[in-house]
Amino acid sequence: MENPLLLFPQLNISASKDKSYYKVTKSAVMEEPNKASKAGAKQKRNRLSLLLQRSEYHESEHLGKPGNLTKASSVSPEEAVKWGESFDKLLSQKAGLDAFTKFLKTEFSEENIEFWIACEDYKKSKTTHELFPKAKTIYETFIRKDAPKEVNLDFQTKEVTSQNIEHPVITTFDAAQNTVYRLMEQDSYPRFLRSDTYLNLVKGRNPGRPTLRRRSRSFTVNDFQGVRPDFTAW
């Protein structure tokens, strides 16, 4: 009996061609996901790089805008010691204000000092013409409900401030600013004085980059009614 392959050689050729076509097709199908995967990975790397650049850019900016943060090396231990005498002395010096702002950023509570600075700038307005746009910006940024940087105010203070926005005057934000000032003085300021950032400045050391940490809870005005900071433990 003759070999069937010899009688029908076209069967072998066709099978060979089909097999080769299958290999080529399979290879092409496998290459497509690989190309897509590589392209996707490259796109993700580019996006991550862009986000990091934006993060570094915004971190270098200073809130409302008092200038860049002062380098620790430019602050003398004697100057840092004076910051511990009172909260007012800390905020009255640019280096102290910058150091405290940097500390609040590590606690994600910088909206308080940003609001305080914005109010200080507002009170420097020389004409009534300047008051309305500044008042509106401050209200939309810090006061109104669900504002992007809403500060913690009691109901009465928020209501009075909101009503005064329609006809702003130099003293429109005084009550709200004093409330936020008191909260920082009784809450954030004592923690700042206990922080490694401040203690290293007093000792003349470079504090390095602070560690970011979340606040355990949000304090309210009622938490500090009649409470004064106790510095005897230091």
From TrEMBL:
The RGS domain, residue ranges: 86-202
Keyword Cell membrane appears in the UniProt entry: no
UniProt key word Cell inner membrane: no
Organism domain of life: Eukaryota
Keywords: Signal transduction inhibitor
Any one GO BP annotation for this protein: negative regulation of signal transduction
CDD domains: RGS_RGS18
Protein known as: Regulator of G protein signaling 18
Organism: Cairina moschata (Muscovy duck)
